Fold this sequence. Notes:
Order of helices and strands: HHHH
Shape: elongated
Number of strands: 0
Radius of gyration: 40 Å
Structural class: mainly alpha
Number of helices: 4
Helix content: 40-55%
Amino acid sequence: xxxxxxxxxxxxxxxxxxxxxxxxxxxxxxxxxxxxxxxxxxxxxxxxxxxxxxxxxxxxxxxxxxxxxxxxxxxxxxxxxxxxxxxxxxxxxxxxxxxxxxxxxxxxxxxxxxxxxxxxxxxxxxxxxxxxxxxxxxxxxxxxxxxxxxxxxxxxxxxx
Length: 160
C-alpha cells in the first residue's frame, strides 16, 4: 500500500495534511489575537488648513495675479541667520609670477582672438606668443613648492 505525498507521516507519526491544517489554524489564531484592531472611528480628523472646494486655477506663464495672491512668509522669523565671515584678501603676486600667468593664459587667448577676427600677425609675434606660453608654464612648474604645506593637519587621502 503506497501513501500519497500529503499523507507522509511527520516525526510525530501524524499525516502531513493534518500538520498543515494545524499550522494554518495556529496562524489564524495568531492573526486573530494580534493587537487591537483599528476602526475608522479612531482615525483623527486632519488639523491642517481647510481645503477649498474650488477647482485649482492653472495660472498662465505671465499671470501676475497668481503671484500676488500667494502668501509669502519669511523663513526662520526671529532666528539668527548665519553670516559667513569676509574672505581673506587674495595674496599679492610677485611680478615674475604674474607675468608667467599672463603668458600661460594670455598667449593662447590672443592667438585664438586673432584667428577669430582674421588678423594676420607677423611670424615673430607668433614666436613670442609660443615662447610666452612655454616660458610661463615652465616658470610656474619650476617654482611650485616641493612638498605640501606644514599647516595641513590631516593625511593625504584614504588608505586601502
